[in-house]
């Protein structure tokens, strides 16, 4: 979603478990490694690499079965610590990746594989720019076609304006088409997590699903055909209808890829997104079309007021569609009103809503203040001042919507996952504290009241300077004793560097708290703390 309340965000698949577990120390080398995710995903060529204790690549095969990624080892691992880097693509089309470390025999220093963080970041920003230019160009081109075909009257002088708009639309279409074409190889590189050299390899191009190519073809072909229908000869009614139909198909085509594919129910989400895109194109293209044509229309008496009134009436329905579809998708993504203020995605969404409301206010001023003045001016000789005011207002409204599009680009890269703060779980006085160091991060853990039954876990992460800090991913805590293993404890973040959880300890004795923290793409140090629990 580009102009209204919300856009489906990056609801990526999450890694649920691995076998062996992160940081595990095994007596014998495994023949297979299993990654389990919370939703279906697909693999990418060379997405999994296995590095032995010496940092050498180990031959491996990968198989994706629904939510599971199986890594088969064709040769036995030697003793020491193994690092497996993995990269898969979520249902929403976004890549996720990480690394798994485990040891055979005794752990050894980790041989760090070459990092691609900076390269991936550069590709990500390049892809964001290409997509932003492509979407803005698509909405503007299809919207200009719709404005020229629907809102300008059927007359020879209006045909001249249509040809002028068609010339502008051809330029916009060329830029948008170039952006959509460029996005295809950039997307392939981004999915694989590599550099431009990957484009010389056949598997790179096959890593993109066919729908990506089909949507790009529909978008580019639709824009070109729509502007051609508008440009050739006199714009008859049949030709205008055909141009609008083709433009609408092009505007709605992107709903078939991306985030809506992971939303539920899929048909409803895709339909809402398609309608949202179409409404956004009519609004943005109409504003630009008015800005370009009103100076000429103002010299034709009532025609300027007629065109503006026609568009203002349609804009009310467009705005209603934007609000309805945006609200629906926002509800499907965030799930609660509290998430609007408790998550980064929700806060960014509120900023976007505020910007769109500014555009709505300008549109209302245009409709209820400037338009009546323009109508009155057509009855007198002095028509220029109100017409110029309308042009300025529509230009400002279009600029405000462009800012909303920039915010949308940030929304696409922001996770909507709930980061809401829990109720305070204050530890009792004098908690038993244990400290360990993971990389450059000091970890202070408490378990209170150290008695059988309900206990509170707190975890504080500090930098060398003593300031709260974070890893590249949230910490993972596992609790076990000789009698029971609770597995991973569901932590809740209270503030930066501060996590808490409630656990039920079924028996007294010595409990081991394993804390792991990913401090880089490939480094995931693990520490173990012991607590003595009373009966």
TrEMBL record:
Residues 306-411 form the Copper resistance protein D domain. One of its GO terms (molecular function) is copper ion binding. Keywords: Cell membrane, Copper, Membrane, Metal-binding, Signal, Transmembrane, Transmembrane helix. Residues 12-104 form the CopC domain. One of its GO terms (cellular component) is periplasmic space. It is a multi-pass membrane protein. This is Copper resistance protein CopC. PANTHER family: INNER MEMBRANE PROTEIN YEBZ. One of its GO terms (biological process) is response to copper ion. InterPro entries: CopC/D, CopC_dom, Cu-R_CopD_dom, Cu-Rt/internalin_Ig-like, Ig_E-set. The chain crosses the membrane at residues 132-152, 172-193, 213-232, 241-262, 274-295, 307-333, 345-368, 389-412. It comes from Actinoplanes aureus. It is found in: Cell membrane.
């Amino acid at each position: 979603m580009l102009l209204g309340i919300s856009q489906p965000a990056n609801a990526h698949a999450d890694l649920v478990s691995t076998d062996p577990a992160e940081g595990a120390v095994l007596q014998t080398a495994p023949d297979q490694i299993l990654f389990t995710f919370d939703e279906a995903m697909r693999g990418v060529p060379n997405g999994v690499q296995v590095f032995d204790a010496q940092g050498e690549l180990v031959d491996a095969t990968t198989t994706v079965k629904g939510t599971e990624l199986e890594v088969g080892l064709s040769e036995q691992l030697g003793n020491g610590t193994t690092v497996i880097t993995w990269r898969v693509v979520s249902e929403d089309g976004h890549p996720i990746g990480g690394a798994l470390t485990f040891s055979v025999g005794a752990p050894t220093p980790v041989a760090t594989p070459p990092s691609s963080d900076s390269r991936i970041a550069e590709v990500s920003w390049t892809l964001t720019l290409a997509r932003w230019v492509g979407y803005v160009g698509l909405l503007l081109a299809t919207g200009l076609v719709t404005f020229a075909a629907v809102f300008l009257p059927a007359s020879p002088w209006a045909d001249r304006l249509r040809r002028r708009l068609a010339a502008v639309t051809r330029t916009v279409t060329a830029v948008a088409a170039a952006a959509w074409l460029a996005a295809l190889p950039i997307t392939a590189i981004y999915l694989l997590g590599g550099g431009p050299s990957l484009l010389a390899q056949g598997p790179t191009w096959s890593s993109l699903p066919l729908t990506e190519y089909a949507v790009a073809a529909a978008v580019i072909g639709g824009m070109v055909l729509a502007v051609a229908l508008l440009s050739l000869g006199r714009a008859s009614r049949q030709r205008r209808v055909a141009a609008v139909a083709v433009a609408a198909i092009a505007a709605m085509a992107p709903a078939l890829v991306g985030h809506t594919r992971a939303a539920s129910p899929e048909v409803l989400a895709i339909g809402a997104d398609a309608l949202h895109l179409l409404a956004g194109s009519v609004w943005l293209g109409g504003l630009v079309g008015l800005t370009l044509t009103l100076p000429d229309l103002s010299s034709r008496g009532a025609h300027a007021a007629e065109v503006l009134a026609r568009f203002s009436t349609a804009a009310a329905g467009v705005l209603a569609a934007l609000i309805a579809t945006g609200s629906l998708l926002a509800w499907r993504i965030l799930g609660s009103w509290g998430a609007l203020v408790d998550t980064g995605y929700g806060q960014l969404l509120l900023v976007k809503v505020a910007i769109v409301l500014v555009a709505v206010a300008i549109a209302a001023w245009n409709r209820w203040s400037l338009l009546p003045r323009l109508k009155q001016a057509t009855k007198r000789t002095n028509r220029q001042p109100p017409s110029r005011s309308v042009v300025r207002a529509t230009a400002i409204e279009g600029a405000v919507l462009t800012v909303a599009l920039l915010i949308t680009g940030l929304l696409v890269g922001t996770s909507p996952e709930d980061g809401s703060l829990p109720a305070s779980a204050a530890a009792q006085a004098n908690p038993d504290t244990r400290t360990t160091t993971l990389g450059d991060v000091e970890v202070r853990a408490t378990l209170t009241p150290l008695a059988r039954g309900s206990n509170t876990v707190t975890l504080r992460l500090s930098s060398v300077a003593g300031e709260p800090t974070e890893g590249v991913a949230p910490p993972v805590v596992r609790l076990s004793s000789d009698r029971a293993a609770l597995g991973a404890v569901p932590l809740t973040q209270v503030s930066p560097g501060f996590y808490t959880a409630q656990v039920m300890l079924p028996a007294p004795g010595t409990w081991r708290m394993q804390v792991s923290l990913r401090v880089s793409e490939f480094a995931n140090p693990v520490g173990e703390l012991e607590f003595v629990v009373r009966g």
